[in-house]
Amino acid sequence: MKKWLKSWDFDRYIEIITTEFIHLKGVYTRWYRNKGPRIGGTGKIVKLEPVLNTWARLEWPEHPEKRLENVKNIFVGDFENNCLHSGVSTYPVFNKRDPFRFGVSMSYHNLYSFSRSFYSIPSYYGTLKWLATASEIPDIINYLTDNGISAAFHIHSPQKYWDDKRQKLSDRFPEETDAQIDKRLRDIKEELFRSNCGCLIR
């Protein structure tokens, strides 16, 4: 048994399907049978090969009940690039009751997701939009740091101080209206804050 496992690099196979299962809750395997049955010899599985989820798709079953058990074939190709250069290969689904029927077959094993007939739903599915934004967070923070107003201290401005200022303006410009005095007072406030807190007012 150990010799057979080493003959097809089983540790690499386990590494890949474990990673696929952790992230996508489902794995594809390609089963290779020996050539013995072609001439009436004994059949046996010579090796297993992992197929990445990005390269495999289940055939839509003909049976009215759309269940994983009714899928007859599995397609393999570079689906991320519309199979333009890889083409699409078709493999019959591995039948554990008749394991040596096909020279090469495939199987899909998954952790059942509620109310899903075929593919499992990855645990991170609901966070895809957040994952896409995650790489932009440092830039957003830098932008806020550079362009945000972050006061290092608070300025207390007693009302009595401004009341006195207003009274002095009224005494100095008795001919002006209240609106004109208020405008002068606003100008004084702005000039005062600019001169003493230029780092806060841009």
As a percent range, the share of strand residues is 15-25%
Number of strands: 6
Structural class: alpha+beta
**H/E order of the elements?**
HHEEEEEEHHHH
What's the helix count? Answer: 6
Sheet with most strands: 3 strands, antiparallel
Give the proportion of residues in helices: 25-40%
Question: For the residues shown, what is the average pLDDT?
Answer: 85
Distance between the termini: 76 Å
- In spatial order, strands of the major sheet run 2-1-6
Can you tell me the number of structural domains?
A: 2
The radius of gyration over CA amounts to: 37 Å
Low-confidence stretches: none
Shape: rod-shaped
Explain this structure.
Helices cover 36% and strands 16% of the residues. It is α+β, with helices and mostly antiparallel strands. It folds into two domains: 2-129, no CATH class; 159-196, no CATH class. Helix 5 (159-172) packs across helix 6.
Summarize the structure.
By secondary structure, the chain is an alpha+beta fold. It has helices at residues 2-7, 10-24, 128-134, 137-147, 159-172, 178-196; strands spanning 26-33, 45-51, 56-58, 73-76, 89-92, 104-110.
What descriptive keywords fit this protein?
single chain, 202 residues, alpha+beta, 2 domains, three-stranded antiparallel sheet, 6 helices, 6 strands, 36% helix
